[in-house]
Amino acid sequence: MTNKPAQDTLLPGNIEALTAYSSAKSEKVSGNIWLNANESPYVKDVNIILSDLNRYPDPQPAAVIDAYADYAGVSSEQVIMTRGADEGIDLLVRTYCEPASDNIALFLPTYGMYKVTADTHNVAVNDLSQELLLSGTVEDIIKAVSGSKLVFICNPNNPTGSITPVEKIAQITKALTGKAIVVVDEAYIEFSESNSCALLLKDFDNLVILRTLSKAFALAGLRTGFMLGDQSLLAPIRKVIAPYPVSTVVAQIAEKALSSDAITQMRRQVTILNKAKLTLVRWLEQSPAVNNILSGEGNFVTLQLKDKGCLSFAAQMGLVMRPFNLYGQDNWLRISIGNEQDLKSVKDWLDVISAQV
To answer: Which ranges carry the Aminotransferase class I/classII large domain (predicted)?
Structure first.
């Protein structure tokens, strides 16, 4: 009889210490009004052809790459298509960071996958603050990120919505030339297009921009992202990426989403959502149940409740929003911008909890 070792004895020592990213959909909650994942409320109808699924797909479908390059204002050689922006984060850490040696710099609070990815690859995290990024001098920031291999800037930032000016990012990138790669995550940039750093790519070979079709393009279920950067920076990543990361079906849908008409429709929807956000912010400002509002940019609003117990009323109403621990406090909440009826439900909830204060 062979003695089988316990499963946990087969795992590397650091695996047990890892904390998985807690995505909005991984949390076991129920409801019928979903405003917790920054998804678009708009549903896309697509027609696809499934006659060639017996063949492997193009690893980097030229039609999609060309269309996204045209949309972003870069050359096709400066674009890699990924499985969501999350794969882009993983590829950057795997390609450019040495495990147990290098570190990445983050400005907290920010998107949680940067840290999860670093932890997974045994790469240390240099925890800095959004306050430093927004209010500190470039000299202060450069000193703080000294020795970091990758410097992640989420812009607009999730979950605060804050914007780091393009000129400041340019100055940071210039100062880090030859020292570090600046990674600007523009997942929400369509909601604040004037703050895109895409034009900086012509000036810097140590700048990477991450993009996605999950937010403004209303294709979260497609898991499609893009990495934009200098050819020399992307070349090593092309050696590391999976051989067939983009399925035929995903490529077909993404190509249609990047047509001229579809982009026009996307921008029209963004305009509607941005206006709806202003309405939601006004309601929040009028509610005595709300302590603080971080409206910022993006298709969400993050706020601080006077009493997090107010969320129990939301659950009773079928309203699902994203609670957060921010700045050492557990009474923060992020609300995605939904359609008119969704936000009417948020207003009803605000009316209920305001009456309780």
So the answer is: 51-344
